[in-house]
Write a structure and sequence with these properties.
Blueprint (H helix, E strand, L loop, with lengths): L8 E6 L30 E6 L5 E16 L5 E7 L5 E6 L4 E8 L2 E9 L5 E12 L14 E5 L7 E5 L3 E4 L3 E6 L11 E13 L11 E3 L10 H37 L1
Parallel strand pairs: 11-14
Antiparallel strand pairs: 1-2, 2-3, 3-4, 3-13, 5-6, 6-7, 7-8, 8-9, 8-10, 11-13, 12-13
Subcellular location: Endosome membrane; Membrane
Membrane topology: Single-pass type I membrane protein
Pfam family, one: Lamp2-like_luminal
């Protein structure tokens, strides 16, 4: 176990000799059979975040792309694309608790991922994504509203991304998409919407091995979906109560029905 403190060590590692990322087939769909010949290591970066004692607490390998939709001065909706780089500035927290934070800073953008443990402590997941930047960033061409500090976040109604048992690493070769936008109460007037595309994703948080190597793989589902683990319990409880009420109601009705018949036959 690593001590409770703010982590100060992290590194982004380039996995090939390429200094720029190879364009992918598409940012919107999953990998096609025709793309099997592409060297995906050339587009994948790995981010390792260590505690102050050198133990790895968060490890991510991913081909990531951020696509931001905004409006230009011609009142047109356009998109700006930004790859997750090989060597961002990493910061965050790895505490001996139920929450860990990883932040990637690059080219004026700050992407934050908040990891949490499930209520029982047996699983981990990403609770929230955040993206901060200025609308005057050079990536935006002829933007209609410059000089705005944009703060986007994933929707609160999706509280669990990539749920995985503690000690295991999440693996998914299908493209995963996370939407981020400004909450209604944020006061953000930019109107921006960001999509984070994650391909060839291999990720683990709450790591305790000194070797810093991946835990056993936990593969994403066929649909790549996620759910709140408290939902099945609530549904099961409701069904049990409903069945109990039906049985109790029928028993009461049957008791009074029989008693009425018996009383009538005595007359």
């Amino acid at each position: 176990m690593y001590p409770t403190n703010t982590v100060q060590f992290g590194q982004g590692i380039q996995l090939s000799a390429f200094t720029t990322k190879t364009p992918r087939i598409t940012k919107y769909t999953t990998k096609s059979p025709a793309s099997s010949s592409i060297n995906h290591d050339a587009t994948t970066s790995i981010y390792r975040f260590n505690a102050t004692n050198g133990i790895t607490c968060i490890l991510i390998s991913v081909d990531g792309l951020i696509s931001i939709k905004y409006r230009n001065k011609l009142n047109e909706d356009v998109e700006a694309d930004l790859y997750l780089p090989d060597n961002p500035i990493l910061s965050g927290e790895c505490e001996e608790s139920n929450m860990e934070i990883l932040t990637l800073e690059f080219k004026g953008f700050k992407l934050t991922m908040i990891f949490r443990k499930s209520s029982g402590g047996e699983g981990w997941y990403i609770n929230q994504f955040k993206l901060d930047y200025s609308s005057s960033n050079s990536i935006f061409e002829h933007i209609d509203r410059p000089d705005i500090d944009v703060k986007l976040t994933s929707p609160s109604r999706t509280p669990m991304y990539f749920p995985t048992p503690v000690g295991k690493s999440y693996v998914c070769d299908k493209e995963q998409k996370v939407v981020m936008y400004a909450p209604d109460d944020s006061g953000d007037q930019s109107g921006h919407i960001a999509h984070l595309y994650l391909r060839d994703l291999h990720m683990q948080s709450f790591m305790f091995k000194e070797s810093g190597k991946w835990g056993p793989s936990f593969h994403c589902s066929a649909t790549g979906s996620y759910r709140d683990e408290t939902a099945p319990l609530a549904v099961g409880t409701a069904l049990a109560v409903a069945v109990l009420l039906i049985i109790s109601g029928y028993s009461g009705w049957r008791y009074f029905k029989i008693k009425k018949v018996q009383y009538g036959s005595m007359k």
